[in-house]
């Protein structure tokens, strides 16, 4: 009986996934470091095990979530 209450947090999360950004938000650009040239697609990252280099241009046009695992 308590299973519905425990899973109730997932419904708002699923709804939030369907929210699309406004057209003005999609084109926002943030210039954090003036010394860095180009876009994110000019760079890449090495996998955690160090065996593979992943170029970010491979994901152009898709949403990318960066997670900093270096502090763990």
Automatic annotation (TrEMBL):
Signal peptide extent: 1-24
InterPro entries reported for this sequence: Glutathione_peroxidase
Gene Ontology molecular function, alphabetical: peroxidase activity
Gene Ontology BP annotations: response to oxidative stress
Coiled-coil regions, chain positions: none
Keywords for the protein's UniProt record, in alphabetical order: Oxidoreductase, Peroxidase, Signal
Family recorded in the similarity comment: Belongs to the glutathione peroxidase family.
Protein name: Glutathione peroxidase 3
């Amino acid at each position: 009986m308590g299973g519905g209450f425990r899973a109730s947090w997932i419904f708002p999360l699923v709804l939030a996934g369907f929210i699309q950004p406004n057209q003005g938000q999609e084109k926002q650009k943030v210039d954090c470091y003036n010394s860095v040239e180009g876009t994110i697609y000019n760079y890449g990252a090495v996998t955690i095990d160090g065996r593979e280099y992943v170029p970010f241009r491979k994901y152009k046009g898709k949403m990318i979530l960066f997670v900093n695992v270096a502090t763990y």
